[in-house]
């Protein structure tokens, strides 16, 4: 990853903490529609499956998965909308 995740400009944040698979992925799908092409969606999740689900979904639908940042008891995932 070339970008420093802590300095990414986030356009929308989806908080899916406490939601089990596939909840965080469904929240991400809804959230990506609220950001413009080129903008970044941040997804909060404490479900382990999200670490594979979000990157796989991003690739499948053509968005750019920027990475994951560990926070206090949850992960922050970053996805740039590409279309």
TrEMBL record:
<dbReference type="InterPro" id="IPR036868">
    <property type="entry name" value="TusA-like_sf"/>
</dbReference>
<feature type="region of interest" description="Disordered">
    <location>
        <begin position="1"/>
        <end position="20"/>
    </location>
</feature>
<comment type="similarity">
    <text>Belongs to the sulfur carrier protein TusA family.</text>
</comment>
<dbReference type="InterPro" id="IPR001455">
    <property type="entry name" value="TusA-like"/>
</dbReference>
<feature type="compositionally biased region" description="Polar residues">
    <location>
        <begin position="1"/>
        <end position="14"/>
    </location>
</feature>
<protein>
    <submittedName>
        <fullName>Sulfurtransferase TusA-like domain-containing protein</fullName>
    </submittedName>
</protein>
<dbReference type="Pfam" id="PF01206">
    <property type="entry name" value="TusA"/>
</dbReference>
<feature type="domain" description="UPF0033">
    <location>
        <begin position="14"/>
        <end position="38"/>
    </location>
</feature>
């Amino acid at each position: 990853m070339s970008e420093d995740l802590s300095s990414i400009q986030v356009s929308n944040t989806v908080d899916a903490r406490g939601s089990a698979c596939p909840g965080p992925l469904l929240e991400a799908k809804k959230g990506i529609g609220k950001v413009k092409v080129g903008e970044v969606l941040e997804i909060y999740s404490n479900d382990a499956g999200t670490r594979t689900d979000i990157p796989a979904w991003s690739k499948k639908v053509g968005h750019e998965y920027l990475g994951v940042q560990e926070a206090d008891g949850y992960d922050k995932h970053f996805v740039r909308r590409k279309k």
